[in-house]
Amino acid sequence: MSIHSSLRSAGQAAGSRRNVLKRHERIRTLMTKGQWAEARSVFGLPKLKQVRVKVRKAETKDKDKAEAGATPAEGATPAGGSAPKGGAAPQGKSA
Asked: Into how many domains does the chain fold?
């Protein structure tokens, strides 16, 4: 009998975020923040908030700068070479 695809753990990223930290992870976090005393008990540790930072891609910033610097002059044709919408009909074809 096989396992259902939604129950498999192999497809998840190795460093996936967990909601609950283990005791040694909480102590390590408190030590880095300077809130840990050596004489303190390891039981009854405070809850710690995990900050999730969404990383923005640097590529989008580069695109914005490139688009801002490459604005076409007024009346210029687009890069595709086609006429702007609502413009004059092409020469040689009559309606």
From this structure: 1
